[in-house]
Amino acid sequence: MYLGVAGRAAAPADEGRGEGTLWHQTQVDLHGDAGESALRLALGCLMADQLGITLRRAGSGQRLTFTRDGERRLSEWIARHGRVGWMSHPDPQTIAPDIRRRLSLPLNLDGNSGDNVNAPIRSIVANAQANARAMPVVRE
């Protein structure tokens, strides 16, 4: 499980699809890359061996990604296995910390209760990030 928060109301011209909206964040989590989505980063690191993907540095070397092909594979896996649910709240930032304290959300790397499931996932992600930083930057 993962708790994401989209905390900005869209401007009328955005038609609910502007940056910071639920629609935008869902698109990033489902189709973006690991540099934009903590969910994709955690899932990709956990699924790396099964999907044959590796976290790498790209662009200027600051952005982390599973490369185009790896991000595509991760998106396909999420499309087959992921489920999305949501709730509306006038100020989601105020309730998210309480939800994170009450639930086991192993894919939330930050603000988590630190249960026994989260620590190994943090370690897997940290190792993948360290390995990515040790490899040459990929040019995409």
Radius of gyration: 16 Å
Label the overall shape.
globular
How many strands, what sense, and barrel or not for the largest sheet? 2 strands, antiparallel
Q: Give start-end ranges of low-pLDDT stretches.
A: 9-15
In DSSP terms, counting alpha (H) and pi (I) runs of 4 or more, how many helices?
Answer: 5
Number of strands: 2
Helicity level: 40-55%
Strand composition percent: under 5%
Concise synopsis of the structure shown:
The chain is mainly alpha-helical. About 50% of the residues lie in helices and about 5% in strands. It has helices at about 20-30, 40-50, 65-80, 90-100, 120-135; strands at about 55-60, 65.
Polypeptide structure, described:
This protein is about 50% helix and about 5% strand. By secondary structure, the chain is mainly alpha-helical. The protein has one domain (about 10-135). A two-stranded antiparallel sheet has the order 1-2. Helix 2 (about 40-50) crosses helix 3 (about 65-80). The longest helix is centred in the C-terminal third of the chain and has 17 residues, at about 120-135.
Annotation keywords:
single chain, 140 residues, two-stranded antiparallel sheet, 2 strands
Task: Summarize the SSE layout with pairings.
Elements: H1 22-31, H2 38-51, E1 56-58, E2 63-65, H3 67-81, H4 92-102, H5 118-134
Helix pairs in contact: 2-3, 2-5
